[in-house]
Records
---
Amino acid sequence: MQQVNTNDMKGGAVGAVKSGSTAGAVADAKRRLPIRGRRTPRGVISIEAIVVIAIILVLLVWGGSRIGQLYLGTDNTTEGGNIQSLYGAIREIKTSAGYGSSGTDLSPTLIAMGKVPGNMAISGAQIMNNWGQPYDIKSTGQGFTLSDPGVPEKNCIKIVSSVSQNGQFDSVSVNSGSANTGPLATATAQTACSSDPSSILWTSTK
């Protein structure tokens, strides 16, 4: 009978085990290694990020312009409303003797009688406009004048053109210019409101 060399068998088994262990270890090591893909170099912004930033900037610029337009529209509405409210308040203090002697300051009378609209600021004996400037309201005897100073040019154009449509005042002049009667076109108001700021003088004979 042929003798089997047990030492050779043991050596082969050990070698197989070592070989298997080595292969397993290598496989484990490969599994543990992180999968490395393409990496963006540090300090370099991706195209996607640039696009997002550009969109955000466009939205901020657009939103800022819209907010500015909103504030401009609000100022125009507020000041136009103030002028019309003051017209009504002044008419309420007129008697058969009119508004008093020509040149009489009517602001203290309006304040004392509580005729100033609640949304308007008062400083001492003066009524303030939307830009913190005092109105100059004077009697002309049977009529009155209402001066609205310190009005920004862009607001002046809209206020003059819109308030003139209501027919409350007999005339309006801007920056000591000629008096305009009746409703004014926007282009006419733009020509009149040539200074920044402007002073608007409303005149009523009623």
---
Amino acid sequence: MDEIYDRLKEINSDIKVLPSSGYSIDGLTKTILAKGCDGFIQKPFGTKKLSQKLREILDTK
């Protein structure tokens, strides 16, 4: 996940990234969040939760 995030940011530094995992927030996720990742969503999630997270991310600059 860390390498994918870095590569996405290399391609487009303005891209919004919302990783998702069935595991709790672990060290790797904390590392990505510390780098400036836009958020995290815990699996399982429904469409309402996903929509809320996406709206939060898209509403921030």
